[in-house]
Amino acid sequence: MSLPLGSLLKPFFPLSADAFPKMAAERFGAQEDMDKTWLMFEPVARTLVDSFYLTMNHPRHEDLVPRLDATPPELRGIAYEGAGMGLMLLDSIAPYTKRLPAFVHGPGAPYRCLVLIGAGLVLPRVPVRPERFLARQDPFLRWLVMDGYGFYEGFFSWRDTVERHRVPRRIHGYASRAFDQGLGRSLWFSTGANVERIIDTVNSFPSRRQGDVWSGIGLACAYAAGVMDRKAVVTLLEAAGEHGADLATGTAVASIFREQSGLPAPHTDLACEAVWGRGGEAVAAVAHEAGRRLERPGADDRWDPRPAYERWRQKIRTAWLGTATTAPDVRGAGA
């Protein structure tokens, strides 16, 4: 009897949820809060890993989707992210299959943002040139692939990516900014969502990169496992200083992710209320309005060379600077 594909590939792509807390301890030493935080992170990490191998064993969409949908609702988006990882890997082994694009435009569409992030988590490990892969993706959402890439490098290549502040040589242009957004997201997990460790780590980066890193922190604190209270989120916002609007943009993107999954989470509302002064649904509405404004370009927009994804983010940033009802001193610093 032949082994499932996932079992055959596992030695070449070893991924274990148990490695996550061990790696964090190696970076920061034994910390009393790490074990407690890991209890919150563990279901997320195990769902991601399990769905990655599940996808390689059951790549046919009609077999895969019912298994993904059997995941508890609060973790289902993470399961689809793991599916993006598995399908990306399978497509890199047999490019003619094109399982990933069929999934993104088919049954995975409600979770397409997370599926693309999942694909990016595998991109550093496969012989595929990032720019060629990005060119085949949706022009607006393709940058989420680089977010996943940045998360992978930030978490698994800590010394080079975080301590030495290196960006892989094959990452260029706006892709490097999306990379930093994912890197910031990884810091949430690798620091154990500890406010002091997050702030110290972000501040070690050059100022020109900190905005995108803070944006990733904002996305993670609003979307991932809820381990912070309102005071901690406000502390992060204050620490972001002139980059507060970037952190706010990350929370808005998280609210869109939650909306697409159809399952609002209390910690998404908590983070959005702390940063925006309104709940996740209202913040998602702001992000949607920014998208509609992008579809009605003004004179300045027509000549703006930045990718549409970044122009959308900029409009969200501007909305926070102009209409947020919390932390007026922080807003003033970023104006």
Describe what you observe in this structure.
The protein has 335 residues and is mainly alpha-helical. It has helices at residues 5-9, 19-28, 32-57, 61-69, 76-93, 99-104, 112-122, 130-135, 143-156, 158-163, 174-190, 195-203, 207-223, 230-240, 244-261, 266-276, 280-295, 299-302, 308-323, 328-334. It is globular and about 50 Å long. The model is unreliable at 325-335 (pLDDT under 50).
**Could you list the spans in which at least 5 consecutive residues all have pLDDT below 50?**
325-335
Give the integer mean of the pLDDT values: 87
What distance lies between the first and last C-alpha atoms, to the nearest angstrom? 64 Å
Write down how many β-strands occur, each being a DSSP E stretch of 2 or more residues: 0
Number of continuous helical runs: 20
Radius of gyration: 19 Å
Percentage of residues in helical conformation: over 70%
Largest sheet: none
Oligomer: single chain
* Overall 3D shape: globular
- Order of secondary-structure elements: HHHHHHHHHHHHHHHHHHHH
Helix/sheet category = mainly alpha
In terms of DSSP E residues, the strand content is under 5%
